[in-house]
Amino acid sequence: MDKKNVGIVGATGYVGEELLSILDNHEKVNVSFVSSHNNQGKMLFEITKKFSNIENLTLDSVENIKNYEVQTIKAPYDIKTKGLNGFWQFRCEIFLRILDKYGSFIHSDLDAIWLKNPEIVLKEINTDLIFSQGTIHPRPMFKKFGLVACCGFFVVRDSDGARFFLNLLKSDVQNTGDDQVSVNKILYNFVESFSFEDNYYEKVCFSNGERFSIRCSNKNIFGDFKNFYDQKLSVAILPHRLFPRLKDSVDKSTIVAHPLAPKSNDEKMKLLKEIRLLS
Question: Residue 65: pLDDT above 80?
């Protein structure tokens, strides 16, 4: 299998080293370029741990990445002028291009903070789709199953079923205008049940006074698909205690924290600092 050469800019930083850990055993990529502003000229393993399949490369200057063939996916969608109308469909098109060109991928919102490498959990799950758990939006999904899938952190594996799911999502999101609504709408219509093992409930309290209890599990939650257009498709919801959406659930065991926060950037940053996810 031909591997795609990739480069990591800022390879010795926290995010860079986590990316290297993820790519170390990736079957479709070969890390051929690493850069570091502060450690230029040193060998990679002088700064980071040793990896099984990544060579001990010389840390280069980011300016020298121009000597390599760099492929980018341009995003010609201007939210400021176009608004959100059409944005979710455009995002689904990008997901499909990534899946077709590079295979399996992780999508992580900017405010989904990686405290540990999620691969330690993800590699044990053999489903086509993996979602973190949301709270109560959208309501029909919550009322039916006691949980919802969150689009702030999810995994799409390279499979025909996952590809069909993304195409269906791309079509439906034109009507709903919200990818989380569409994702959960598809799950609502085609998942017969979710298997909860070692389950418990967490309280959700909103600023308007509404209170709910969401059904969680200390283990992965698996959905049982029925009659999904004759496609084979499997889905898992990650344990909320490891991938929490509620700020009070963030603790030492957290792998990726994606706490509910106000939409404004300033308020979002304030919350992340309050719970010490940012300094």
Answer: no
